[in-house]
Design goal:
Elements (H helix, E strand, L loop, with lengths): L2 H22 L6 H32 L1 H25 L15 H27 L6 H30 L15 H9 L16 H12 L6 H28 L2 H12 L2 H6 L6 H16 L4 H14 L4 H12 L2 H25 L25 H14 L7 E3 L7 E3 L1 E2 L8 E2 L5 H23 L7 H17 L11 H14 L7 H29 L13
Antiparallel strand pairs: 1-2, 3-4
Helix pairs in contact: 1-2, 1-4, 2-3, 2-4, 3-5, 3-9, 3-19, 5-8, 5-9, 6-8, 7-8, 8-9, 8-11, 8-18, 9-18, 9-19, 11-12, 11-13, 11-18, 12-14, 13-17, 16-18, 16-19, 17-18
Length: 555
């Protein structure tokens, strides 16, 4: 065992684990609990970091350039996280940094546990080596997927930090950010008030999908459903990043290229916004990605059906994306018919089950009378809306512009990307108002134009099943939101993954070119800088409406 690597692992994890234990200290109050939690998590984290450092050293010896690029990405994401935290703590009325600090009464047990974990982790690593852990499935999974996991973990930290901020009970209204129903889903997923007070049929059995996950996580938080809901939302965003990485790696056989694409996806304005705001959309994006991964792994019909049922249960329209993907990728009409028939047979019983477990939570999806209230979200299709919708889909979903700041007498100043023509007011769209974000938008447009040319050049030389899938998904969402939605950015999670994956496959022939990898790395760094301003704008516009942070922690 390399002692220097082990000591570095112990010291680094001792610093990194402090805010995690500080967070858990809100639930685990006694000295014994904090000692045990610290000892367990620190020991496991030391082993993980020891493995990561060893792999980095081995990879540097074999592929220095690729490993250097990966390290720059991870360092950039870590700096991104620290910079965002530094921005947020400037608003103490909505950010209580003590949430991540260990109470003085148990601080001694924390340090004792750190010291005890030093010899424990040392001998645990020796024991793992004797057990030939390299041959286990867990080790092989880590070895094959470490890049995707690290990117997901780092961006999960971003999502969860802001999810706790933007969904605290003081944000007690909907439509604050991008017309999202943040207050509704915070209460539906994280409290006993699970009813949809808008009484809409579009999410027929979302509660029996999400709330069991929240409940399971709450078991590790002494039953706190609200914070478990925050973690669930952020985990869905992080899982989406990993699935993008897995999909691209599977099809290109290039781990670094997959990391570059997954990081672009994870740092996109869509992921940053909806990884941090309680809603259904981040779950829909992740479920769609799960369905794609199941297809490329050629999984059985039952697995596809379960995923399709989840997609429909969260939002009825998203079953269309699974049908499109199944049709073009699987190319099995008989199985597609079976898939559709099984889905149709099960959605009614599942809806009945949802309302049995959660009475009066929402109308059944076949109760069309409940759709009457959706008129306010429906708009006539015209050239102007099509033009602005197109900009949101291909530009704003990735590169954040300067958002619209709407002060219309609402309890909160709103941060939106797009506002439909309502109450006689004209249609509005967020714009790129600075030299920096204008340049970055053109940078992204250039990358898209390059990918489009490659797609056309290779159209008759390649299998276009994935390209056609993503094009149809984009067209489906374009058609739907041409007539539906006040702020169409709210629905961007439904298409951003398809847009990113389309160009990831279009650029595939350059995946191994160092100049192209450096170009994507440069875009990522600039994207992190630019999109950090989106979260900063959300902070500074909403902060004046909040007096002090409230988290409603379970006693």
């Amino acid at each position: 065992m390399t002692n220097i690597r082990f000591i570095i692992s112990w010291l680094v994890t001792a610093a990194l684990i402090y805010p995690l234990i500080g967070f858990l200290n809100n639930f685990y109050k006694s000295s014994i609990e904090i000692g045990l939690v610290t000892f367990s998590l620190h020991t496991l984290t030391i082993c993980f970091l020891y493995y990561v450092l060893g792999k980095l050293k081995a990879d540097f010896q074999v592929q220095t350039f690729q490993t250097s690029i990966a390290c720059i990405i991870f360092i950039s994401l870590f700096i991104f996280l620290l910079a965002l935290i530094n921005q947020a703590i400037q608003y103490p009325n909505i950010v209580d940094i003590s949430l991540y600090q260990i109470e003085a009464t148990v601080l001694g047990c924390f340090f004792i546990a750190l010291l005890v974990s030093l010899p424990a982790s040392y001998y645990f690593l020796i024991w793992l080596r004797k057990k030939n852990i390299q041959q286990t499935r867990l080790y092989q999974f880590l070895n094959e997927n470490i890049n995707g996991l690290l990117s997901s973990i780092l961006l999960f930290c971003v999502y969860i930090f802001f999810c706790i901020i933007f969904n605290q009970p003081q944000y007690d209204a909907d439509d604050i950010f991008f017309d999202a129903d943040g207050n509704l889903y915070r209460t539906r997923f994280g409290t006993e008030n699970y009813a949809d007070y808008y009484y809409r049929p579009f999410h027929p059995y979302v509660l029996i999908i999400i709330r069991p996950i929240v409940f399971t996580i709450s078991l590790f938080l002494k039953g706190d459903m609200l914070f478990a809901a925050y973690i669930t939302n952020a985990m869905a965003g992080a899982l989406g990043i990993f699935l993008v990485w897995y999909f691209v790696k599977h099809l290109t056989k290039n781990s670094l290229y997959a990391l570059l694409i997954a990081t672009i996806f994870g740092a996109s304005s869509t992921q940053l916004a909806f990884g941090s705001i309680m809603e259904t959309y981040i779950f829909l994006s992740t479920v769609a990605l799960i369905f794609l991964v199941l297809l490329i792994k050629d999984k059985s019909l039952p697995a596809l059906v379960i995923t399709g049922l989840v997609a429909f249960g969260i939002t009825v329209s998203n079953i269309a994306q699974t049908v499109i993907a199944h049709f073009f990728i699987k190319r099995d009409i008989r199985q597609l018919i079976k898939y559709g028939l099984i889905i149709l047979a099960l959605i009614v019983p599942l809806s009945l089950l949802n309302n049995f477990i959660y009475p009066n939570s929402q109308p059944y999806f076949w109760e069309f009378a409940s759709l009457a209230g959706e008129d306010k979200n429906s708009f006539p299709a015209n050239y102007q809306r099509a033009n602005l919708l197109g900009r949101v889909m291909v530009l704003h979903s990735i590169v954040s512009p300067n958002p619209l700041i709407i002060d219309d007498g609402f309890p909160f100043v709103k941060t939106w990307m797009f506002r439909a023509a309502i109450d006689g007011d004209p249609m509005l769209l967020a714009t790129y108002n600075t030299t920096f974000n204008t340049f970055l938008a053109y940078f992204w447009m250039g990358l898209m134009a390059f990918g489009g040319l490659l797609f056309l050049k290779n159209f008759f030389k390649q299998d276009n099943c994935f390209f056609l899938t993503f094009i149809l998904i984009l067209l489906f969402n374009f058609t739907l939101h041409l007539v539906y939605g006040m702020d169409v950015f709210l629905y961007s999670a439904n298409w951003t993954y398809a847009l990113i994956l389309f160009f990831a496959l279009a650029w595939k022939e350059f995946a191994n070119k160092r100049w192209f990898q450096i170009l994507l790395l440069l875009f990522i760094i600039l994207l992190l800088i630019n999109n950090s301003q989106l979260l900063y704008t959300m902070l500074k516009t909403s902060a004046p409406s909040v007096r002090f942070p409230t988290y409603n922690l379970t006693p």
